[in-house]
Amino acid sequence: MSEHTVAPSQDIIIAQEGPSQRAYWMRQMIIYGLLLVGAAMVLIPFLWMISTSLKSQDQLFVTYVNFVPDPIQWTNYLQVWENLASIKPQMTFWRIMTNTLFITTLAMFGEIISASIVAYGFSRFRWWGRDTLFAVMLATVMIPHIVTRVPAFLIWKELGLLDTYDPLTWPSLFAWGPLYVFLMRQFFLSVPREVEEAAIMDGASVAQVYWYIMLPLIKPILLAIAVLSFQGNWNNFQSPLIYLSTTEKFPLALAMRFFDQSLSKEAPQWHLMMAMTTMMAAPVLAIYFLAQRQFIEGINIGAVKG
Amino acid sequence: MDGALSTYLPTLARYIAVAIGVCAVMYGTYRLQRWFGIRHEAAAGRALVMPWVIGFLIFNVFTIGSSLYLSFTEYNLFRAPEWVGLENYADLFSLDLAPLESADQRSSEALAPRHKEIIRLEIGDGGFVFGALEEEFWRSMRLTLLYAVLSVPLGLIGALAVAMLLNQNVRGLGFWRVLYYAPAVLPAVATALLWRWIFSGSGLLNTALAPLYNLLGVGRPSWFIDPSLALPAFIIISLWGVFGANSVILLAGLKGIPQELYEAASIDGAGDWSKFRYVTIPMLSPALFYNLVVSTIAALQIFEVAAFIQTSDEVGTFLNWLIYREAFDFRNMGMASAMAWIMLLIILALTALIFRSSDAWVFYQGARDEETKPA
Question: Hey, are the CB atoms on B197 and A169 less than 8 Å from each other?
Fold first, then answer.
């Protein structure tokens, strides 16, 4: 109990100490002030997006800045899809969502599995040519995608697989993301050698060691990469744009472009477009907030340890 | 849903077939090496990296080679590629600088036939005009390079400032970090649309700045149409997305700097600036270097923003989008490949330049330790 009575009096003494204390508070004020200014700059566009998505059309073009929609028009989120269906009956919300999830899941799964296998080969085994090949792999990051687009398009055309999900899904099985291989390799390298040696002594095969010992050990980074990969594939725009032409096969990103170019072309329907934008952003943002620790770890491993 | 299944199932079947095929190739590679008497460890290692090797050969080596070949041809998908030698490149680099005889002379009269103006400089009663045959390409080149050269350093400086702010033992670090990184998670498509709306004629920015416009007596600007405003607008969009992403990485770098270094510097009488200049910057240089390389490559390839935001002809568009349109809208596969190759060479040159310069300013602690270690 006596401690309680002591504490405030100490505060008073500290407060009386003068200039250094004042300097400390000034400093804190400046730091948090700047942080708040930065946060506002980050948040305002987000708030504007959500606020627009809940406005009615006549609230869009007014002469003052208004962040609070009045009345709140939730129906925008349904209206977008009704409008889309009015010109393309097949473009329903469920269809477009399933398309997006189908592409995202297959690509994500392929990326994680193949990248982890390749990273395992690049980290836990010694073989001639390994480091050279690894350097070559990292160098491919510099190749702009657009250089490979035209010939890749021709390959898929020859295979008769244009306007299917194939170009967007199974090439992920060939570890198309060198960055993920790099991240997982960093993680594999940190696992002590004894762990797998014991298993090999017991007669475990390479596949068994990988599946039962190595994968569980690198679970944190697998989760981080799953999050990064989900985000990357969900957000992907360029390759669907090149390969898909039938509107009902479109993922969300293309459906948004389609809406923009058809229904919103003459008179932009920003309230509906922002509703669609919010719908596209929501899942990625939700996953990001839920898994932010893994996410931030994932980005950091590459840059700091590398 | 019937139609849906018929598009998903064949892809799924081929996906599984390819997965099995990759496993078979891995196993075959292993067996083959063992048959040649290569030891287990090496054979297994090489077999495990096969998925990447196959992808690399098909989707990188083969495509880049084909792209180079196509860049020497004229090809519209319908007829076989026709070899034209260096013609595509010659067209792209067909530039012309002509003097203007009078201020009201039209640029097209001064320039060589079919060349169009890129830059016009009037000096008194005369001047110069700089034109090119493929003036769209050069306008895009100007916009893309200026964008990269300005947005990348600005983004890095901003990110460093945010990272240093967050490194001041602030409360709720996790909260700030999550908040600042959020724009980088947003789909690029969403970012592009959102900012087009903010910058649009009666969007947020123009509405908020309306009193200022009234005060200055100017009309509402069309941000992406006006040649002097488009670049700043694009840079603002990029900064919003990249601030947080880079600052999270730099923050982790800052946290990794041992406190003793600052204490030692204090004992030697170093002030805040000296500590920043001689401790923070060198210790952070590997993270800065990483950010510089990654941001530069990304900035040169900006795509979604260009796809969703229309600019005027004078502004031009971004190179990546221009190449996409040349290839897939206009079906000039040969010309598009030539442009893409020029872009590849620019990225390689810039990256090489950054790597070259890194010897002078990037400080690797590990490397230094090894040097000073007694032999």
Answer: no
